[in-house]
Amino acid sequence: MSKLKNKLYRHRHIMESLSQQNQPLFVFGMERSGTTLLRLMLTAHPNFCIPPESLFFVNLEPKYGSSQDLSNQIDNFLTDIYGDPRFREWNVDREKLRQNLTAQKPLNYSTAVATVYQTYVQQFDGQAGCWGDKNPWNIYHIDTILKYFPNARLILIIRDLRAIYASLKRNEKKFAKTWKGACIANVVATTQQWQNLFEVIKNYQNDERFHILFYEDLVTNPQEELQGVCNWLGVPFSQSMLEFNQKNAQKKLVPTRELGWHAKTFQPVSSDRIEAWKHELSDSELAVLEILNYKTMLHLGYDCIPKTWQVQRLLKFYADYSQYIYWRLSKANLQRVIGKIREGLASLKTLQLSLTRKLSQNSIQ
Fold this sequence. Notes:
alpha/beta; Rossmann fold; 5-stranded parallel beta sheet; 5 strands
């Protein structure tokens, strides 16, 4: 697909297989880039078990990360973990988790986190030998992951930025209800995530713990791509990985609240959505996505429209975005005006009370 991709393939084949012992698997990428699909494919393999998303690991790190032994803080740790609504969706038996945590001596933060995941594995897939974590937001926490799990393996899945945005726009109701100017602002936010992703690629592409996978390749040639992942992980390929949708239906691996935007996870893998973005994005959206990310998209092997066409689209984007900025500023100004009016009314009321008191005092005298 690109020079970078060819380099990654060469690097993949010369790497030594990594032992599964004490080497959890972290899956990440931008939202709507295929992280859930990859998680389900890996979980369908007999060796791996990856629960739904939860950020308890990075969210609780500031509170517990520096402690050498959490043995006296287990109750607090459990309270904090079960305070995360996403973690509660795992349905991990609290008493069993308490027992497993108590059995660890010493119980530092990395051991505590690993014990949480291992308890999930014991409860839902006892045959799996390796636990994993899937979260798009891991892209911002790689340093934290490697600090506590230096032998971890990280898989980044990349998808065409335009397809990612189209999927977000299609699946998130807020996009449909938002005025077009705000929708343009979401293009900018998605672009910022893409730039962060590209920085991760530059920083870690030669790290043997790091593996890059392209969504388009995964859905077009799933067996070949999954075989490559298995070779990198040092485990045999399993045909069950291609039947992930069956295990998802049987085990209900996707939380109920996510079924609305993950309905296709109950179907076999398909490549029919690869270029759906071409019919779903406006000229303005395409303009900013392609212009701001032109070099990075080409570097990763994604074709962009000719620059002569981009000028026209940029003008349309500028017009829409200018309206959005004006709308935001107008709204902010209106709020300031309302605030001033409220302050004035409060001052007037105070003055009125003061005058009333003085009149009362004068009448008494």
